[in-house]
Amino acid sequence: MAINFMDLLGSMVQGGMTSPSASGRMQNAASSLGALGSLFGGGSSQEGLGGLLGSLMNGGASALNRAGSAVGGKDNLAAAGIGALVGALSGKSGSASMGGIGGGLMGLLGMMAYKALTKNGPAAAGASSGIAEGAAPSPRMTGQQFAGDGQGGPGAASGAESARLREADAEVILLAMVDAAKADGQIDAEELKCLTSKIKATGAGQEGLNYLIAQLQAPMSTEKIVAATRGRPELAAQVYSASLMCIEVDTQAERDYLDRLAEAMNLSPAVVRNIEQIVGMRA
Question: Fewer CB in 10 Å around end: N or C, the chain?
């Protein structure tokens, strides 16, 4: 059976593979993203995150085109479960599925990336991002945004292909979270045992658990992550955002790791600053 990386991400969040500040940072991000509503066809900043999601789901192809793959496509947002994600980090997830929590993480990271890349205008985002207003979407972006949209059109990806692409991105985010957790040193045997026990308790399958244990014990995957983000600044921004959910950034080793990662992924200082502002790390 293939590993479901969206489910595994949810298990990682529910199982505590985030920093103590993760809940506050994601809630800061959700609050900050409320102001994005006007970009998606009618939502106002007063409507908050709920209004943003509603306008995204009802705004049609033009809104989705502006959001692009950083948001993840209308079908993904419809089941994003951002509320379940924030609840999981606050210890109030109730009966939310691990896939719902994982989808919520990917949806929130996508919206954070969109805001961070476009906050300073199209020039800051870079024409290659495919998400700045007026920029041409990449073939991969087009496949993601229209699958399950009901719009179809030439070159639209099948639902299965769209799901495969999202799973591939979810694996990259998972690897980024694991690397961040190892930023100030390898995870020792006792930490590994405690962490995997908590993740297993969420219902994670043995195959996914074995994969996660192997990644936690392996050398850092920076080269693989950077290769996956090449030419995709929206994914690079999501990787950086996810990394901030796994570490406090209260040691020099963690700060140095984030700086090296951002440089390797060609994220500009302005985009990095925007992401850290969104989660409430910088004034």
Answer: C
